TrEMBL record:
Signal peptide range: none
GO cellular component labels: Mpp10 complex; nucleoplasm; small-subunit processome
GO MF, one example: snoRNA binding
Residue span(s) of domain Brix: 87-270
InterPro entries listed in its UniProt record: Brix (IPR007109), IMP4/RPF1 (IPR044281)
Pfam families per record: Brix (PF04427)
Protein name: Brix domain-containing protein
The species this protein was found in: Chrysophaeum taylorii
Domain of life: Eukaryota
GO BP, sorted A to Z: ribosomal small subunit biogenesis; rRNA processing
Length: 293
């Protein structure tokens, strides 16, 4: 099933706004370089000489509050971050799931207070995304497996994307943890540890993708979900706690697993690879930086 005309129009408008944002960032960077050269008493960089007059004229009218470029275009998550749209998750699996993958998807449902577990059956990806979009889900989470072991997780933000891909490893189900019963009525507190959000836009992007899967927690919530980043591998842990004086007693609820992001596509899951732009992809043998996140 192809996208409706309205979805195609909305996606084109979003991509156009994103392209404008890229141009604004480029202009801001040029102004910054000219401003630094003038402040240091140095000559304007050679590649900016032809644009210097026009850029300096724009700089004269820049307001101090608007010196920097606009925040990264997160129109996809802006409503959720502002609390205007409640996180509503649709959870499904790959086709013909094993009993272990079905159990894993049920346990994922227990993580999110406002979620629905959908039996995939023989439904096509395009039909699954279209149904989730019509039901006004904010995100579609699809779990994958290899030989009965969960090894992949796809988080598709609706209605226009992006779609983030993770590999899973060392997956331990709640059955194996022997966790106590717990209520999922209230959202959990979220802990993001060792994400270099100030230095790396990709880390901010991953944190936004994961954070918007959960509604805002209340102050008295007793559940905690932790994303611990170490060497670009994110350890996921789920606990409940009881405060005893100055000490906290933690009880693991499960499941637990390690997740590694490897791709972010700007479109939704049902789009063909050539129909959606790649925002980021992990190339472990080509990256020059030692750390991605």
């Amino acid at each position: 099933m192809t996208l409706s005309r309205r979805q195609v129009r909305l996606r084109r408008e979003y991509l156009y706004r994103r392209s404008l944002e890229g141009k604004e960032r480029e202009v801001y960077e040029k102004k910054r370089r000219i401003r630094e050269a003038l402040a240091a008493g140095k000559a304007v960089p050679t590649e900016l000489v032809r644009e210097e007059a026009e850029l300096r004229q724009q700089m004269a009218f820049d307001d101090a509050r608007a010196m920097g470029p606009r925040a990264a275009l997160d129109d996809e998550y802006a409503r959720t971050l502002r609390g205007e749209r409640l996180a509503k998750i649709c959870i499904s699996t790959s086709r013909s799931p094993s009993s272990r993958l079905k159990q894993f998807s049920k346990e994922l449902k227990h993580l999110f207070p406002n979620s629905t577990n959908v039996n995939r059956g023989n439904t096509k990806v395009s039909d699954l995304v279209d149904a989730a979009r019509r039901a006004d889900f904010s995100d579609l989470v699809v779990a994958h497996e290899t030989r009965g072991q969960p090894d992949g997780l796809v988080v598709c933000h609706l209605p226009l994307g992006p779609t983030t891909y993770f590999t899973l490893s060392n997956c331990v189900l709640r059955h194996d943890v022997v966790a106590p019963n717990y209520s999922v009525d209230s959202p959990p507190h979220l802990i993001f540890h060792d994400f270099n959000q100030d230095d790396k836009p990709l880390a901010r992007r991953i944190v936004t993708v994961l954070k918007c899967l959960f509604p805002t927690a209340k102050a008295d919530a007793k559940r905690v979900v932790t994303f611990y980043n170490r060497d670009d591998t994110i350890s996921f842990r789920h606990h409940t706690y009881v405060k005893r004086g100055k000490d906290l007693d933690l009880t693991e609820l499960g499941p637990r697993f390690e997740m590694t992001p490897y791709q972010i596509k700007l479109g939704t899951l049902d789009l063909a690879p050539e129909a959606s732009d790649t925002e980021w992809v992990l190339r472990p043998y080509l990256n020059s930086a030692a750390r991605v996140l």
